[in-house]
Amino acid sequence: MATGQAPDDDDTALIQAYLSHLRVHKRLADRTLALYTADMERLRQQVQAQGIGLRDVGSHHVRQWVARMHAGGRSPRGIALILSGWRGFYAWLGREGLVKVNPVVDVRAPKAPKPLPKALGVDDAVQLASHADTDEDPVREARDACITELLYGCGLRIGELVGLDISAAGDARGWIDLDDAVAHVLGKGSKRRSVPVGTAALAAVRQWLLAREAWAAGDPAMFINPRGGRLTPQHIRLRLRRRSAQAGLATPVHPHMLRHSYASHVLQSSGDLRAVQELLGHASISTTQVYTRLDYQHLARVYDAAHPRAGRRNKG
Prior knowledge:
By secondary structure, the chain is mostly helical. Helices cover 55% and strands 4% of the residues.
């Protein structure tokens, strides 16, 4: 740069040189170059407002600008893209020997919040669980109805549902104790938990177990296809999607949507977040009891009182 240049002139010259580098040496498309130009203009405005030059920027300045952009409503993804453009600019300045440190290298955009999966309203969830397809094969209908009741009535993960066996054999990953109205499942991290099973789900399980005999071929799996093989998660997703359409729901339903509906409806009714956490198996019950002093009977009471499909569980 020529000596005697004003800071603004120096900054403008640096930005123009960088954009020229991108155009000539990187051969960026016009659209991409326009985006970089916009990023550089934002950076120039920030340093002007700060009363400093581009080569005086420190990481604390960048973090302050990120906070302002976030407070102003810019999305985490949008901020990340801007930071990427600034990071590239300062990397180039470093290669040119014009700055010693890249002030953007360790600055990250705010984390985007993970959107919760959609939950059905109570009326839609009950409509789906109560739906009966009279045109379907009765055995398949009994199976699909049972699957729906357990996903919504117990909040099971699809892997836990698929892993259920018809009885508590030594190698069973999961089973349902009809006498105690409890589903014993193997969740994430090979952690076992027990979940109360409501009246509607118990009735559906009993009906399915009777109908299942028409297909049974020696496989211990609770949910099987007509050839007697254990159902796959993909098959259950397809059947649930079909069932939700037949039930007249506007939104295609997938298994995790029913799990989230279960959690949302119990939480809305009970306000007991810790109990819902336990029911979902986000932590092992035996481990969490040490800190929360929750026990299974407490969880069962919360479930019975709050879940719209629970009713009074039949233990006989």
